[in-house]
Design brief:
Layout lengths: L5 E6 L2 E6 L6 E3 L2 E3 L1 E4 L4 E4 L2 E10 L2 E10 L1
């Protein structure tokens, strides 16, 4: 069975991705992870989708914008 179980959480100005047991795994910059803090320019791969993380600053808070494409 396919179990897509990934979580993305924003906490204290950071964006954290977690793989909570998915069958396809979660990858950041082609490295399989169980948990990772995302940084500007990282490429997050979940299943067949790639998401590039782009950070911008607005009013001293960090905001992440994600742009995705399928592989």
């Amino acid at each position: 069975l396919f179990r897509p179980v990934e979580g993305i959480v924003a906490c204290d100005g950071r964006v954290i991705v977690q793989d909570l047991g998915s069958t396809s795994g979660a990858f950041v910059n082609s490295q399989q992870i169980t948990e990772s803090v995302l940084q500007h320019g990282d490429v997050l791969t979940l299943g067949i989708s790639n998401v590039r993380v782009c950070a911008s600053s607005h009013d001293s808070s960090s905001v992440f914008h994600c742009f995705g494409d399928s592989v």
